[in-house]
Known about the structure:
This protein has about 100 residues and is α+β, with helices and mostly antiparallel strands. The protein contains two helices and two strands, in the order αββα.
Amino acid sequence: MNQKQKIASAALALALATAVVAPTHAAGKEKCYGIAEAGQNDCGNLAGTHSCAGQSTVDNDPGEWKLVAKGTCESVGGMLKAEAKKRYEEAKKAKS
């Protein structure tokens, strides 16, 4: 096996290991909207203005989310996706 094949094999093994571990890591978690501090969101927002973690610009934006332990979102002051989408749509209509 040459050097390039070894590197490719190692990269593939790492990618597969990550794919297997990632869902397990999220098990028992849920998206909690409205609790992320600026720059601390876990991924894309409801508005679709970004799709990456760490790109929120204001604290507690109702369209931004963080993963929390399942069943704890509302107790920490957040909203589940259905409520967040409802509020987002209401705010959009109010601006129109």
